[in-house]
Amino acid sequence: MRKVNHFGIPTTTEQENEFYAEGLKVHLTDYSKSPNKIEFLRFEEGSCMPELVQTVAHIAYEVPDMEVALQGTKVIVEPMRAGENLTIAFIEEEGIPVELMCFDKE
């Protein structure tokens, strides 16, 4: 079962308190500090992320099992570690990117 975590909005405008994810060449804001759970993403040229992720807003869902959540989907970004206890992947649904987030079980 999916649980909404945040909304990702690509932008070309520098945002207050953004941080840089060097491997993805993207500047991000912390959605947990947004009252509306918004993460702004400002991509640099040469980012490895697909154009769809760089140009179209996404919804991010928490999922209990990444392998199960990916079954039968159109994967556009393979699962990758995004923190000590987090794995993410992107799929395409209804023409938009959807981020799947799986937190390690303790």
Summarize this structure briefly:
This protein is mostly beta strands and 106 residues long. The protein is 9% helix and 48% strand.
Q: How many strand segments? A: 8
Q: What form results from the Cα inertia axes? A: globular
Instruction: Outline the low-pLDDT stretches.
Output: none
Number of domains: 1
- CATH homologous superfamily caption: 2,3-Dihydroxybiphenyl 1,2-Dioxygenase, domain 1
Placed side by side, the strands forming the largest sheet appear as 2-3-4-1-5-8-7-6
Tell me the series of helices and strands, N- to C-terminal. EEEEHEHEEE
Level-1 CATH class name: Alpha Beta
Indicate the proportion of strand residues: over 45%
Would you give an account of this structure?
- With 106 residues, this protein is mainly β.
- It has 2 helices and 8 strands.
- It has an 8-stranded mixed β-sheet with strand order 2-3-4-1-5-8-7-6.
